[in-house]
Design a protein that fits this description.
Blueprint: H1 10-22, H2 25-32, H3 36-50, E1 55-58, E2 61-64, H4 66-93, E3 98-105, H5 106-111, H6 113-123, E4 127-134, H7 136-144, E5 150-154, E6 162-176, E7 187-188, E8 198-201, H8 206-218, E9 226-228, H9 231-239, E10 244-248, H10 249-258, E11 262-266, E12 272-280, H11 286-296
Parallel strand pairs: 3-4, 3-5, 7-11, 8-9, 8-10
Antiparallel strand pairs: 1-2, 5-12, 6-10, 6-11, 6-12
Helix pairs in contact: 1-2, 1-3, 1-4, 2-3
Length: 297
């Protein structure tokens, strides 16, 4: 079995190519801004590593040996690849290229993040961001497995090796059409929910869990007429008069501006939702670092 030799010093390969171009050690030294002994030392080290001379001397000129001729194209390719590698690394550092893997709970992905990502794109047009939405539990798992670099998720316990910052504070509200009897109120008594045809997210969704815990604490039982898998469906059903909905306040902001829905608080109930920006202690990606700083500001 042949012994695996270490890779040659990149500077030695550059010296080799420069000697070929200039024809002598002296001129190569001037071109590279090095001393002649320094150039000769790199050349000797490379020849010792290869095990064969790369040049023969003809008068004052150095001419390639057969081994040198055979390795010249490979040396050029290797140096070019190293230069391209360094150019790519510098472009990443200057944020001229790069990619970020971002996850966000669906509510944040739909209703909050677009303005952040638009501003980020305007500042860093060459950076690509892939946004994945879903449940906080699933995104936390993908973050833990290294498949995401940043995640905006809800009520997640902090785990080792990761940091978190509060990103967004929201609350659950009751929504009704403008012509609903409740529309003139700012808040309603919790007991009235037991009498209303409720439209709520499906069991397991964070909205359902937050609402269920609050109702249980208040000693109330509800029987929703519809369970939905997203807030937009809930809003549409309310707009059609199918019942009274419970959604995140951020979800209904556009409707409040238009005036086609009203939002009410539930008296005496703590229905806060906290969304956290979670990321590894060491990101190792300049683009992700800059996006993190924007989201955390």
């Amino acid at each position: 079995m042949n012994e695996r030799r270490p890779f040659p010093n990149p500077q030695a390969l550059r010296v080799f190519l420069c000697i070929v171009q200039e024809g002598s050690v002296g001129r190569a030294a001037l071109s590279l801004g090095m001393t002649q002994p320094g150039v000769s030392q790199h050349l000797r080290a490379l020849e010792e590593q290869i095990g064969h001379p790369l040049f023969h001397r003809q008068g004052r000129r150095l001419v390639l040996s057969k081994t040198g001729q055979a390795l010249l194209p490979e040396a050029r390719r290797a140096v070019q690849a190293l230069e391209e590698f360094m150019q790519a690394a510098q472009a990443i550092e200057r944020l001229e290229r790069g990619r970020v893997e971002l996850g966000a709970a669906t509510t944040m992905a739909v209703y909050v993040l677009p303005r952040y990502l638009t501003a980020f794109k305007q500042q860093h047009p060459e950076i690509r961001v892939r946004l994945e939405s879903g449940s906080s539990e699933r995104l936390a798992q993908r973050l833990w497995q290294g498949e995401l670099e940043l995640a905006i998720i809800e009520q997640i316990e902090q785990f080792p090796g990761f940091e978190r910052q509060l990103f967004f504070e929201d609350e659950l509200v009751v929504i009704v059409p403008p012509d609903h009897p409740w529309a003139r109120y700012e808040e309603i008594e919790p007991q009235r929910l037991a009498e209303a045809p409720l439209i709520l997210r499906e069991p397991g969704a964070m909205t359902y869990r937050v609402m269920g815990a609050a109702l249980e604490q208040a000693g109330l039982q509800i029987n929703p007429v519809f369970h939905t898998d997203n807030h937009e469906v809930t809003k549409r059903l309310v707009l059609e008069g199918a019942g009274v909905g419970i959604v995140s306040s951020v979800v209904v902001r556009p409707n409040l501006r238009v005036g086609n829905l009203r939002a009410l608080r539930i008296k005496g109930m703590e229905l806060r939702r906290l969304f956290w920006l979670v990321y590894p202690e060491q990101l190792g990606n300049p683009a992700a670092e800059v996006l993190k700083e924007m989201l955390a500001s």
